[in-house]
Amino acid sequence: MAMFELLSSVMASSARGWRGTAAFTGHKTRQPEQMLILYDIEACPYCRLVREVLCELDIDVLIYPCPVGGMRFRPDALDISGVSQFPLLFDPNTGEHVLESADIIDYLYKHYRSANGHSARGLRAKIALAGSMAATAARSVGRIRGMNAAPSIAPEKPLELYSFESSPYSRPVRELLTELELPYRLRNFAKSRWQEMGPPQVRSRWFSDAPITSPNRLRLRELTGRSQVPYLIDPNTDVAMFESAEIMTYLRNSYGGE
């Protein structure tokens, strides 16, 4: 990844205080039996707030990217809600569709985390939204990354991405998936222990014996022997790979349209 791209992605994460890095502890999160579906725009400040909470709750979600100008999933979202507004959550476990980021966050806490007293509103919510807008601005030099649709070829099956929301390396991959309107299962990779913080080489050197407690971290370690994101799995081609630059090249070559 180019140095400028990495720097602006780090600035975006910093603008949000690195929310979407660590999983909540102390309260049990209940995993949904069927994967939630999120109609999402990567660059949208309101969508970011929802993805942060999904990451911190360690809940996986099927992302249907709905970039501006996109025609693959935006019509479905419009049919469901009656408005072109994102994020839009569908929970197949309850049959409910939820619009508005604050309502979605309240819904997630109510149904999937045994914690009371949370509110996605008020002054704290306004501060969070301002930070999310700043994060979008940090990724908007020249163009707004992850906002507008680009020509692409639709995959037969959704892709799969291991990522955590604040990861500076994962963000460009999610932006490109959005621009290409490629549906993907987002395997949230939030860190559940302080020993997991920092780059992989630090963890492997100083905390190699620290137990891994996150289900997706355990799964990826079993698959690859590594705990590193982004990691893309494409069931359409049986390709699996690390490294954001290589992943983005693959996506453009495989699904980018003329």
From TrEMBL:
SUPFAM superfamilies in the cross-refs: Thioredoxin-like
Pfam families xref list: GST_N_3
Family annotation (InterPro entries): GLR_AS, Glutathione_S-Trfase, Glutathione_S-Trfase_N, Thioredoxin-like_sf
Domain annotation GST N-terminal: ranges: 157-258
Protein name: GST N-terminal domain-containing protein
Organism the protein comes from: Zhongshania aliphaticivorans
Lineage: Bacteria, Pseudomonadati, Pseudomonadota, Gammaproteobacteria, Cellvibrionales
